[in-house]
Amino acid sequence: MLQNLLSSIVKSEVILKLLYRYLVIAGFCLLLCFNPAIADEKTITHFPERIVLNLTETPFKSQAVTWRTTQKSGSPRVEIIPVSELLNPDKSPKTFPAVTSVVELGENTFAYQHSVIFNGLMPDMIYAYRVGDDPWSEWSQFKTASEKPNPFTFLYFGDVQEHVFSMCSQVFRTAFQKEPEAGFWLFAGDMVNNGPDDSLWAEFFSALGWIPRTISLIPVAGNHEYPDPRKTPRDELHITPLWRPQFTLPENGPKGLEETVFSFEYQGVCFVILNGNEQTAEQAPWLETVLSKNRQPWTIVAVHQPVYSISERKNKTGFQDLFVPIFDRYGVDLVLQGHDHSYARTLSLKNHQPVSDKEKGTVYIISNSGPKFYSASNRNDHLMAKTLSNSIWFQSIRVEANVLKYTAYNMQKEIVDAFEIKK
Ligand SMILES: [Fe+2]
Ligand SMILES: [Fe+2]
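Above: the input record for the complex with fe (ii) ion. Below: its predicted structure, written as tokens.
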């Protein structure tokens, strides 16, 4: 009797153990099925990626956003609403349909780049937006510019170019911590080492994380956004076919240079972006026209290759003859550049010479924001206020009504250079 009882207890224990084991395995399987990360990887390949805000030529009333999916998306679009109304059940967001371009990445591999320009926005307003269709991205937010001059800060980066994911992620995070309210980030070219290589752009966007979903980027075309000139026939030397689909930039430049040469106005500053890689002669009369019509109190130009180089290598751009007379004539305040992989700030210059304290001149800056370094040479030492070598920097530029405050930081957030321009 006792033996029978013990035997049935042991049997039930075995059954319970087996049941327990089955339950654990079933639970684990259920978890696997419902783990969103695993589900995303396997099934949701058209999830929006590389979401990036760009400024338009009128950032007080419009804003551009671009994103990518790796599968054809049903009806890609954006929803947008003032952030103050996002949680109000009586308000609904506006919808903007996207324009899609297909980019061939390799044999039978395509990316679908979607872009929207929001028009009719209110100045000085924080908007929430999301992109996609099914699935949607998360809601992000951005702020439109003021319609009139109003103090603001923007960040300027030199070349990031190499080891962008492993090394430059921390540069971007440090810069964001230092100036979280920056109006936009300007990259002076060579964001990647080989423009046509999509995997390098993947690194660039991964390093930036969610930052370009909330702060607009202004990219300048560097020589590394082009194919290698040593391996490419001259007539095929055009900017990477990834550039125009993955950014949505103003198209108000000279014909054939849309989205690499353009101008925009931002809260009292006329910004002019030049392309130092091709058709530079055509850009001079266009620049002259833009600056002759400019009514903004400040003028800032960006171009990748430096006007006054500090490179050891022969590095003559021809920009001293082509652009400097125009910069001088219209009193350009700052020229932001990259390319030399070191740091330089000139004295205030006019006609290739330092000016006296009472005269108006232009300050030319070269910076480097990635781990590729060259030493600054002394080739233009007589024009320089400061040179630095072998490090990574980012720059904060604050523009107010009567003063422009420039600060260069290293990765420890220490100030390495600073100056002011007073109107
Ligand atoms: Fe570079
Ligand atoms: Fe370069």
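Notes for the reader.
The pocket of fe (ii) ion (ligand 1) is lined by residues 159, 161, 190, 222, 224, 339, 341 (CB under 6 Å).
The helical segments are 2-34, 36-43, 164-178, 198-208, 243-246, 280-293, 319-322, 324-329.
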